[in-house]
Amino acid sequence: MNIPITKTIFGEEEAAAIVKPLETGWVVQGPNVAKFQEMFAAFTGSKHAHATTSCTTALHLGLEAMGIGRGDKVIVPSFTYIASANAVEYTGAEVVFCDIDLRTFNIDETQLERLIVNDPAIKAIMPVNLFGLCANMPYIMELAQKHGLKVIEDSACGFDGWIGEKHSGTFGDVGCFSFHPRKSICTGEGGMLITDDDAIAAVVSQLKDHGASKSDLQRHKEKGGSLLPDFTMRGYNYRMTDMQGALGVCQMDKKESIMQGRRDVAAKYDEALRSVCVNDEDKQKLSDFLMPPFIPEGYKHGYQSYVCLFTGGEDVSELLDPHTTASLADLKSLVDKINLKRNLFMEKLEERNIATRQGTHAVHTLGYYKDKNGFADEDFLRSYAADRLSIALPLYAGMSDNEFEYVVSNIKEALK
If you compute the radius of gyration of the chain from its CA atoms, what whole number of angstroms results? Predict the structure, then answer.
């Protein structure tokens, strides 16, 4: 049996839909992209939605539309995909890293406030709603309003993640999503920017289309469309194709079944980790080695990934405690010790044709940012721990009982 980390849910509908733009000849952003945007805005409860080439370009557009540029600083969690930080650098602004809460893998709002107070050059916050779980957005918005900061939510993984009745990406001034194959709904590549701010939406609409005052679709529908539009700002070519838009429409049509399928598998993992013993003769559960995702009360997880903290049976309470008095050296030593076990565990599953991944990476440990800033691994210790100890288990809608049982039984064997 071969178990991938995830699978896209494509069917006959997508195959038929993607051919239609080829038949009509309208393959750039057009009616399918427009419909995808409308559907996405309606689902998330946002006023405006703009499809882009990726979440990275959506983040770049959002930052520029909010006026972030050279001389400004933007706070980004250190445990995230590198694209979050890169988008800030595209604008000429400076990235300020913040550590995370190791339980949620999201930004540590206590450290966040200290960073804001100590640096007047900070102009924006980019919380990341990681793996489908929203950051503490109500509190982050309070901080932002108190200090006059802009907020751009990196919701690359945030589709169908909620706090109460509010969807991921709708708390900040801007929210940005990804439709990469690792995400819940997929258009190959592609992204979406949402906002309730009319002025930001208008700027984004131009910026993503070279700075044009009218889109191709607008010109096509209006009299005098044979004349080129004015270009009133320097823009980019960040437009989604209509073939991708067609895929997006189909994916939105089946979003309920896709998301329910993912949540069903996540619930089965929750139960298995808490109930299955590693060895039949003792009482150690799988959860003593793999901590299931933590979900705060009132939050609804989108499960872009099912990411556990690998403890290897070690006591990690000091790592989880933000008020610990343990030394950085001792905590880093513990992380490095458990990391060896995690990597061996992942190798054993790979030998059994079960794909796993580390959750994502600690950006401050990556060559470009580490060399540029002279960071040490332990400067953002919990991000470092998440990098070294996180593990994503296979998760996709339609995962069969046989596939699931194969994964769990081999997790048990690999931990023995």
Answer: 22
Kindly list the strands in the beta sheet with 390-393, ordered across the sheet, starting from the edge strand earlier in the chain.
290-291, 306-310, 390-393
Token code pair at residue 288 = 């003593």
What is the pairing mode between strands 191-195 and 122-125?
unpaired
Q: For residue 122, what are its two tokens?
A: 């900070």
Domain range list for the chain: 12-253, 255-415
1: nearest Cα among 400, 343, 273, 415: 400
Strands 191-195, 174-178: parallel, antiparallel or unpaired by DSSP? antiparallel
Which tokens sit at 286? 């799988």
pLDDT tens per residue across all 416 residues of the chain: 999 999 999 999 999 999 999 988 888 888 999 999 999 999 999 999 999 999 999 999 999 999 999 999 999 999 999 999 999 999 999 999 999 999 999 999 989 999 999 899 999 999 999 999 999 999 999 999 999 999 999 999 999 999 999 999 999 999 999 999 999 999 999 999 999 999 999 999 999 999 886 555 554 555 555 566 667 888 899 999 999 999 999 999 999 999 999 999 999 999 999 999 998 777 899 999 999 999 999 999 999 999 999 999 999 999 999 888 899 999 999 999 999 999 999 999 999 999 999 999 999 999 999 999 999 999 999 999 999 999 999 999 999 999 999 999 999 999 98
Asked if 294 and 199 count as a contact pair (C-beta separation under 8 A), the reply is no
Which H helix or E strand runs over 320? helix 317-320
Contacts of 221 (CB under 8 A, 6+ apart): none
Concatenating the DSSP letter of every residue in 226-257 gives TSPPPB-S---B-PPPHHHHHHHHHHHHTHHH
Residue found by looking up tokens 């009360």 in the block: 297
Stretch (H or E) spanning 391: strand 390-393
The DSSP annotation for 264-299 comes to HHHHHHHHHHHH-BSSTTS--BGGGTEEPPP--TTE
Here the tokens at position 390 are 């996180």
Quick one: CATH architecture of 12-253? 3-Layer(aba) Sandwich (3.40)
Q: What phi and psi values does residue 236 have, to the nearest 5 degrees?
A: -135, 165
Fill in the amino acid letter for 158. G
Q: Determine the CATH number of domain 255-415.
A: 3.90.1150.10
The token pair that represents 198 in the structure block: 């009319």
**Rounded distance, CA 205 to CA 65, Å?**
10
